[in-house]
# Entry
Amino acid sequence: MTALSPILHCYRELELLAEQMLELARAGNWTAMTELQQVYSVRVDQLRRLDHGVPISERERMDRYQRLERILGYDAAIRNLLTPEMNRLGALLGNARRQQDLHHAYGSVAA
# Structure
């Protein structure tokens, strides 16, 4: 078995991280998912800095393609789970902002 190229190794790590992020999103563990997303972003930056001009075999090209397809699938699933949560948080922030605006406009109401 041949060793993975640095680029393919990065794609493999990104795929594993994306899968873990999806599992956390499914569990509703947004804090842990966000923390893992930071690790994911660092790995993406590292991938960008690698030498992409190195010739690759057809097998490695297909492996990269398949991993990227899975990464994109995980990303889409995460976004589908995240959208309702973002809407919920947006509504909470909107309500808090309206309450704050009312308080500033009318002050405290004596009981």
About this structure: The chain has a mean pLDDT of 88.
